[in-house]
């Protein structure tokens, strides 16, 4: 897993290459945008090591599922905080 501890020039906070618990070749990326919206995307690693993107989904803070966006925000911020402590 790769965690950005600081926001990039666009104000985004990224957590990439999150590996699942079953050793699969599927990875999860999380993007926290400056407005609080969260984008989740998945990709698979093929036999050659290439990343094959899959559809992504966005959860907005002021939309149908604000509780999901808030929960994902908390996860992202907690992962970034824990990563800072471990350095």
From TrEMBL:
Domain of life: Bacteria
Descriptive protein name: Uncharacterized protein
Originating organism: Candidatus Nealsonbacteria bacterium CG02_land_8_20_14_3_00_40_11
């Amino acid at each position: 897993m790769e965690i950005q501890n600081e926001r990039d020039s666009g104000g985004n906070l990224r957590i990439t290459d999150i590996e699942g618990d079953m050793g699969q070749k599927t990875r999860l990326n999380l993007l926290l945008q400056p407005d609080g919206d969260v984008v989740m995307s998945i990709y698979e690693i093929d036999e050659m090591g290439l990343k094959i993107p899959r559809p992504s989904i966005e959860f907005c803070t002021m939309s149908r599922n604000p509780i999901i966006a808030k929960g994902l925000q908390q996860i992202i911020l907690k992962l970034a905080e824990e990563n800072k402590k471990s350095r």
